[in-house]
Write a structure and sequence with these properties.
Distance between the termini: 30 Å
Structural class: alpha+beta
Helix content: 25-40%
Number of strands: 25
Length: 701
């Protein structure tokens, strides 16, 4: 018989302990006690078993006892995932009144006010908000957290001795520990050494102080004015188009000088990327985050950023000798390519894999990215010289300097190296007609080949990371954006029409290396039918364009228009007409007539909050409260290395069941989830869908 405990139903035959492989930021054990008595007994046993072992605290949880590795928090560990106001799957908490709430993971212990704690330590007061200021080392007053993570936070602070603003990095103990006995604290001390070496040279910020507080190591360093290179390039180009060639070349010369200064002192950066460069308004640059810098040949753990590391670094062993200066030269070329073109230099896998050499693929990427841009085209020889596969054939710093000297000065309004035809909107094409046709065919062929043709597929196209939590029907990470893409291809392309109505969904696409119009038609029909079926299977609160119903309505409408399918057009139009045009805060009641307390929704940039709607046939609104949601206390213990969660807001184990939990784990802390933005495009229907701004509406279920 199931055991009922405070609204939590647990099957006695469910395993009490789930084991996970130990590793960085991973939990060792999850324990699900059936009631309060078992929870306190198990927590005490875990505390005694792990007493005296090293391990980090868990920011979002409370320690079972002072100094204990056992931690607990009140949160979801099992509930059916539903789409929230962000268009993202999440498992909400259910309060005693039946209202669904977001399970928030703050950087401090913050249980719901109505949750009763069975542990003795739970009787202590809890923090209800982030502290306004924290003093470190009796000198630094922390005013703002830039980010929180398992390995430590990054903060903005005021130095009371000088009155200057500083950046403080924190390294927590036992995080990312290696077989050599090092952890994040050692890496932060190494970064402090790099600041001592390169700060006075103007390569990076100056060290202000390195100190220990508790078991944590903190590094205070000079706050640099400017912007990350990725944002700076876009802003500088838009602010002064005529002065951009001069400023861009100034930045390129500055980057080259920074790399030269590091190499002259016998170090390599190992992770030079646009995000590790701060640029000033005049194009001056300084490096940040030098914890990966090393002497060539010394034993290091492999570290790199995809797109900015050469093949020998990517293919190297997990633990081995640090690469030579040639690896930084490749990264310099990739960083300059991004600076000049805003193109992230990622190379996808070829099919077949042995079809083209690395250098051929890089040349294709560079030529496409730089064509039609004066500055980028002028830098093309340098980019190709730096990003060669063979380290010995890459340009050295002396050759780069000579090349840049020969480019000076570029005219303020540099003419395009090759004329390019204007488009109907007044813009300019980057590719020749033949290049555009190849890009179109290759892109469509890849899209169709990657499509899951199973009618019962969970998603039509594979995604990873954050995309796995997003609505599979939406524009971003879902089918609606591809519906609009394929519809656009049918409406504008000159693909062969001979097989318009003869495509076979069971026949692999591109059997002869070519894609026909019939392939696109068949794929579009299949994707639209799949999207319609999936729409009726769950509620979608988000009305947004990228992550919600507005984008889905647009995709269906455009698909119906391209296919001449009135039913699809009608489905898109009907869905668009259910979108809210206003969303005032109002009272909500569930099916039982009781008032539901609203939860504060999260908002995405560009997405309006959801408006409450009565569910009904063919309506994709919000549904009533679902009674059966269960949650409870969870205890957990940690020991060993760890790093942060992938994103905040998720429970420790979103696949489990609401209830009381004890866990032994290395510890992991919430990390802010990045927002993904993408160009959804604009369709005829989307232009008529009104999404006014307004106050946030309550979340209802």
């Amino acid at each position: 018989m199931p055991v009922q405990v405070r609204g939590h139903v647990r099957r006695p035959d469910r395993p009490a302990v789930q084991e996970r492989p130990p590793g960085i930021g991973r939990q060792v054990h999850h324990v699900y006690p059936p009631d309060d008595e078992a929870a306190t007994a198990i927590a005490e046993d875990l505390h005694r078993a792990t007493y005296g072992l090293p391990g980090p605290p868990v920011l979002s949880d409370r320690a079972y006892r002072p100094g204990s590795l056992v931690h607990y928090r009140y949160g979801v560990f099992s509930a059916r995932s539903v789409l929230d106001n962000d268009g993202v799957y999440s498992s909400p908490l259910t309060d005693p009144d039946g209202a669904c709430l977001v399970d928030r993971r703050n950087a401090w212990y913050s249980p719901p006010e109505w949750a009763a704690c069975p542990f003795e330590s739970g009787r202590a007061p809890v923090r209800t908000a982030a502290p306004e200021a924290v003093e470190l080392d009796g000198r630094f007053v922390v005013r703002q957290a830039i980010r929180h993570g398992a390995k430590g936070g990054v903060f903005l602070a005021e130095d009371r001795l000088s009155g200057a603003q500083v950046v403080i990095k924190q390294a927590r103990p036992h995080i990312s520990a290696t077989l050599q006995g090092q952890d994040e604290r050692d890496r932060l001390r190494h970064e402090a050494d790099m600041l001592d070496l390169f700060g006075p040279l103007g390569v990076t910020s100056r060290k202000v102080a390195l100190f220990t507080q508790g078991d944590n190591v903190f590094l205070a360093q000079e706050h640099l004015d400017g912007a990350v290179l990725t944002a700076w390039a876009e802003q500088a180009r838009a602010a002064d188009p005529d002065g951009w060639p001069h400023v861009a070349l100034t930045a390129v010369r500055a980057l080259t000088g920074l790399v030269a200064a590091v190499h002259e002192r016998g170090f390599v950066l190992r992770d030079l990327t646009p995000n590790n460069v701060i640029a000033g308004p005049d194009g001056s640059c300084r490096l940040v985050d030098l914890e990966m810098a090393a002497v060539p040949g010394t034993p290091v753990t492999k570290a790199f950023t995809a797109g900015y590391a050469p093949p020998e670094q990517v293919r190297g062993p997990m633990y081995g000798p640090a690469a030579g200066p040639e690896a930084d030269l490749y990264a310099l070329g990739a960083t300059v390519l991004h600076l000049a073109t805003a193109c992230r230099p990622l190379l996808g896998s070829d099919d077949p894999s042995a079809g083209r050499s690395w250098d051929t693929r890089v040349r294709g990427l560079v030529e496409v990215a730089t064509e039609g841009d004066a500055v980028a085209s002028a830098l093309r020889p340098m980019l190709l010289g730096l990003m060669r596969e063979n380290p010995a054939r890459r340009w050295d710093l002396r050759r780069i300097g000579t090349f840049l000297d020969d480019l000076e000065p570029l005219p303020a309004s540099a003419p395009n190296p090759q004329p390019r035809p204007a488009t109907a909107t007044g813009g300019a094409r980057r590719l020749s007609v033949a290049g555009q046709e190849r890009l179109l065919r290759d892109g469509v062929a890849h899209t169709l080949r990657r499509m899951d043709r199973d009618p019962g597929a969970r998603r039509l196209w594979p995604v990873s990371g954050f995309g796995e939590t997003a609505d599979p029907c939406a524009v971003q990470y879902g089918s609606a954006g591809v519906l609009a893409l394929l519809a656009s291809v049918l409406n504008t392309s000159d693909l062969d029409t001979s097989d318009l109505d003869t495509a076979d969904l069971d026949t692999p696409v591109l059997g002869t290396g070519e894609v026909g119009r019939g392939d696109v038609v068949a794929a579009l029909r299949h994707a639209a039918a799949w999207t319609l079926r999936r729409l009726g299977s769950e509620a979608r609160p988000s009305p947004g364009l990228h992550f919600g119903r507005a984008g889905i309505a647009w995709g269906l409408y455009e698909a119906g228009r391209a296919l001449g399918d009135d039913a699809l057009r009608t489905a898109g139009t009907d869905l668009a007409l259910t979108l809210p045009t206003s969303w005032q805060r109002r009272e909500h009641r569930g099916p039982d007539g009781r008032r539901r307390r609203p939860a504060e929704p999260r908002r995405k940039r560009g997405d309006a909050p959801a408006a409450p709607r009565r569910p009904g046939p063919g309506r994709h609104g919000l549904v009533g409260a679902r009674p059966g949601r269960r949650h409870g206390w969870r205890a957990q213990a940690g020991g060993g290395p760890g790093r942060g969660n992938r994103r905040a807001g998720l429970p420790h184990d979103s696949g489990g069941r609401h209830g009381r939990v004890a866990a032994v784990r290395p510890g992991r802390a919430a990390r802010a989830r990045g927002r993904c933005a993408g160009a959804a495009g604009r369709g005829r229907l989307a232009r008529h869908v009104r999404q006014p701004a307004g106050p946030a509406c309550p979340r209802t279920w």
